[in-house]
From TrEMBL:
InterPro entries: Brnchd-chn_aa_trnsp_permease. The keyword Transferase does not apply. This is 4-azaleucine resistance probable transporter AzlC. The keyword rRNA processing does not apply. It comes from the Bacteria. GO terms for biological process: L-valine transmembrane transport. Its main location: membrane. It is a multi-pass membrane protein. It is found in: Cell membrane.
Amino acid sequence: MTKKELWEGIRDAFPIVLGYVPLGFAFGILASEAGMSVVQATAMSILCFTGAGQYIAIGVMKAGGAVATAVIANILVNMRYFLFATSLVPFFKDNVPGRWATLLSYGLTDETYAVAFNRYKKKPPTTSYMAGLNITSHIGWISSTFVGALSGSLIANTDKIGLGFALPAMYTCLLVLVISKRTELVVALVAAALCLGIGWVWPASMHNLFNIIIATVVAATIGVIINGKC
């Protein structure tokens, strides 16, 4: 590993961590309200590391749902990471050893993917950069969860202090970073329109599970067609 690229990965992770802090903090509070201990909430962030999936699991717990329901919902929501990981393979295969790529890809999230993909269009990926970016982001999520779980019921309503807007704000910033040409803008607009359309046609319990996957596949296909690659 090279120190220079390790620090570049850590540096690029800082904006992600700033977005994770309020989200992880809010998750820790909600996990505490759902009856989870500090250790359980923190362990969930260590082992799962999926903000959307963890929030879904907490919602199922608070509603008295079965464990199987939370597991199935998480599998469906997180299927998008299969697409993310697949799109990174051409970058990794000649630059990062397979064992390291597999291990460090555990830290693949929407945010680390966006930042990494934007960099890999200009520079080849390295083990050092992946480690700095993914591990720093994971530590930020774990730490904020721990602090939120410790806080317990001190903050009853996270929406009142704007924590609920942290996730869409972070996604918007990341989207702006990765759009560099007209095709990418078209793909982003199509994906957004599909998500909104599915949300309007289907009830919330259905579209929350499928809209991301459907929008991703359809919008990406349109992008490939526009580029004349199929």
